[in-house]
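Rotation project, supervised by the postdoc (A.L.). Task for the rotation student: set up a whole-complex structure prediction and record inputs and outputs verbatim in this book. Inputs entered:
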Amino acid sequence: MAIGIGSLLNIGGSALSAESTALNVTGNNIANVNTAGYSRQEAVFTAGMSVDDNGQQLGTGTSISQIVREFSDYIEGQYNDASTLSSRYNVLYQNLQYVETIFAQNDNGDMGTSLDQFFSDWSSMQTSPSDPSTRQALLNDSQSLDSTIQGAYSNIASAQTSANQQISTDVDSANQIIQNIANLNTQIASQTTNTSTPNGLLDARATQIRDLSALVNVNTIDRGDGNLLVQTSNGCTLVDGSSAYQLKYLNNQVTPSLTPGSSFNGKIYFDGQDSNEYTLKVVQGGNFSGDPVSGAKFEVSLDGGKTWMTSNSGKTEYFSAENYGGKTTVGNLDIYFGQASNANLTPTGNLAVGDQFQIVPKGGVYYYQSASTPINITPQKLASGADDTSRLTGGEIAGLLSYRDAYCGSYEEKLDTLAKNLIWEVNSQHSQGSGLENFSQVTGTYAVNSNGGALGLDSTGLAFGDKLTSGASMMYFYSSATGALASASSFGMLNFGGAGSPLQGFDPKTDSLTDVADAINNTFGTYCDATIVNQKLQITAKDGYNFAFGSDSSGLYAALGLNTYFDGSSASTISLNPAVNANSDFINAGQVDGSGMAESGDNTTASAIAALASKTISLSNPFNGTTSQTLGGYYSTLVSQVGADASAANYNYQYQSTMASNLDSQQNSISGVNLDEELTNLMKYQNSYQCAAKLITTADQMMQTVLGLKQ
Amino acid sequence: MAFRITQRDIFSTSVAYMNSTLSALQESNTEAASEKRINEPEDDPAGQALALQLRSSISQLGQYQKNITTATGWLNLADNTTTQVSTVLTGLKELAEQAASGTMTDQNRQQISYQARQDFEQLISLANTTYQNQSIFGGQKTDSPAYAESLWLTANDSSLSNVSFSISGSTSYTGLIQFTDPANSNGGTSLTMGAGLSYRYSLDGGQTWANGTTVSGASGYATLNLGSGLAVSIADGAKVKSDPATGSSSDYNSTAGTSIWVRPTAQYLGDDQDSVDVDPLTAQTYASGTKARAGGTFTSNVMVRIDAPASGAGSIIRYSYSLDNGSTWVLSNTSSTTTGNTATLDLPGGILTLSNAGNLAVSAGDEYVVRPRTADINVTISPTESITVNGVGKDIFGGIYQQPGSNAASPVTTMASNANIFEVAGKFIGYLETNNTAGIGECLADFSDAQQQVLTYATNVGGRENRLTTASSVLSNLSLGQTQQLSSDEDVDLTSLLTKLSQQQIAYQAVLKSSGMIMQLSLVSYI
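Outputs recorded:
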């Protein structure tokens, strides 16, 4: 049969088209040698089927059966796992380097030097307590200490704000990528056939998954045919085939989780911001009156319910659930309960034991599966220091969130602890001393929420209320004309027992601001008037008298801001008492001694404050526990913590990025283009093409020969 | 190692190697520029914390050195001043020796008295020495002079020794008063102070006399006017004797009648540390009615808090105390067993005694504050030591002093009356200006005691100066040691750094060369 020339032509033709396809593929590889995300393709030749020719099997040429994309999904998965962590630690390390510069040791502006200079100035006051220039130097150095502390805190706070903006942008990018992947899945599904795979689309999808991994940690499961499932490592499905789900970045979310028997139908509200998540669990059911028996009480956890907040003595602390008027201070938040529609009204239902509330007083990343159930996947560090694996743990978003919360949040808390203890220790000594001038009027600098609330309770809202103890406080009244004590009964302890009663001291569990004003009026009403203005205590001496403060074992003066040196109660609010700032005579270097007078050469208070530089203080904050250190030691521990964190982030980054680049190398060695190899292939296919063309020429000549047979 | 090398790989790894060697080089560069090993906290977190602590400690030591320098200034000045006081006293003693001798005439003594007055003024001005505008002998009242010149009475009649009196006005020469009532119905020559007594006085050492009669002064006092505004008020009822024979020209040094010298003294205006009060004072009482007193040497306030209720004889009182104004408390102390409605509580520096007119009872939470009078200015010179830089003038130089809360001054009793420098010098001037050789002889012996008093204080000052010298050298050793420690912690070792730098430079050059070589090779150049 005439298999001969015609089939030769066919064979040649098939060879030509196959070789030219192969050349195209090689050319494509060469052209895309520098394209990111391109996987090289290889044409696979198959021999044509054989046909029967006079009892012999003859082949029918060749064809390209498929164009294979060289790519390893397995290595790609490992790479993404490493790259997501590398990305997380990279962004963490870069941001921590910025925080390091805030605490950098330079010769003038750093906090350690300011603190040393502050105590040094108090020590200089010992030798010249009444010298105005020494006092002025102290005021100047105190102001620069205040602004250094405030500056460090606000720098960290603004770093957090810019991290928030970046997180928001990243979440938007992630959502965009998720949508892209879903679209690509649809296209891939529609273009995949038995014989051809949409290589370009697969490359595009792999690139998108790499980009997504850089943002969040994901796992992928390819069920074939474009049906790719992309999930975060903690199980939230982001893409399922052609369906895309969303991540959202939301602020200040509250999630209640009430027991079936609870009649609570209001909402929980809070003021303030914190980097921790608060989990509240009701331990005593009841109403919102604050009554010890009928009022509801709750305990608070900062790590999702694994450990509960304790008071300074180590016992679990119970807070009282209050309405708007009696906001309870818990950590950095003021928490209260109100009706669902109106925060200022008391809720009508009661809380039951076991009711829980999750408060996220910051921006967090949430996963939306359906429109009404956002799942909180914001990264969280457990009290043991490990990552909570039910939340995001990798990618830039996790890096930024852990930077903002676990790192910056922790530094802010430590700065707050440092400031608060500095303020309290200095004020505690200073408020018991006496300066160069006596007072004719003094107003406290700390306010309460309610004049009638006992000063030691959280709900009264006094900033240093937890430092108050029972004790006795002395005041001295002098005649303005002579400068001597006005009379033998113009000084003594404040009597909280009521007019005419025997002497009774201050009790923070029962005495309120009103009681303090009454005690002053009952004991020293002849010489002064004590009133409450703007929920702060104000004492005004009557005509012809002035007064000074003396020893106070209860801490009452320091807590109310009377005769104190510092004002404010946190790193962002630390400042000088306006009275001291305006008149350096009110800096207390001495104290009233046994003769009832405070002399200008008395330096007892200055010595006591200077001694605070080397005094070991118990410093505690809710998340980091209690340590006993000097103030300077606490600061240097904070700096070394920043350094250790940065160093650890750097180490992790180096480790993960080395792993990632090794895996990338391996992937490249499979899917990258080697120009030498492609050039070789080019020559190979070119030769084959020339030979195949020769076949056609030969067949054509044979045809001419045959045609020439008949003349 | 990968099996296939691709172009992507070649270029990306070359870039990675160049970056890593260059960044190591850059880091060494930073170390060389700052000469510190720790440029950021992450370079060595623990080392950074140590460096911060050491810096802080070195700065504290520097402050202590400054304090020591200032304290040395105070004490050197006190040292010099007491030496000068001693010299002045020696001069006065010599004057006294001369004046006591019988060969001196009244005029001679008058000439000596001018010198003595000058010496007295100088003693006062020495006692008012200031350092940086602060009185060094005024206790804590450093903003005003420690002493002011004043007048006092000396009498040769012991029945006047505890009588209260006051002097108003001034005089530049000792005044001498003698009573001249003739024998009267009150009992011979013994008189009771009141209005209507006759006396004579002289303001020029007995050369001229004037007469006067006492008048009624402020309630309970009789006033003797001595002209030119000078007046002496003596409490009614004081017993004086008159010597009628003195009426004309008899010896005004006679001891038959009472003579009163109005002579100079110095009044101490500064601070004292003589007593300890305990709050609540008498105006306030706890429900139990228990009162407290304290005795001992307390340097600052001590707060005492009763921890558990107790009542009745045989009970033990549990208490805590605080020495730092309530910041830290020493717990679990027990008192003595209550007997006779009294219990004593032991405190650092002294004891607190609780007592009650009836049954001794205390409630938990009762608080007592021991409030001593303080006059020392203490300056911290090391983490554990402080030193007193000033002195309480009245305990050194004597004079007269009005205790806070009392309405009249009295001679200082911290030292024996014949070591009270100003009183002795004042009496000397009084006797000198009135030619009373017996009195001058008394003062001669007293001057030795007075000088001893000053020299004892000078030793005290010297001891403190020695402490300062020791403290200063200890501090400078400590400071040196810590500076060395800081340097070894954070400074870079220049030799090893330079070696490292050249190694890294070579590494970088090697990477550049090899990368450049590899990147140029390609099949294209051969076909």
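Student's summary: Residues 95 and 480 of chain B are 55 Å apart (CA to CA).
Supervisor addendum: Chain B touches chain A through 91 residues (CB under 8 Å).
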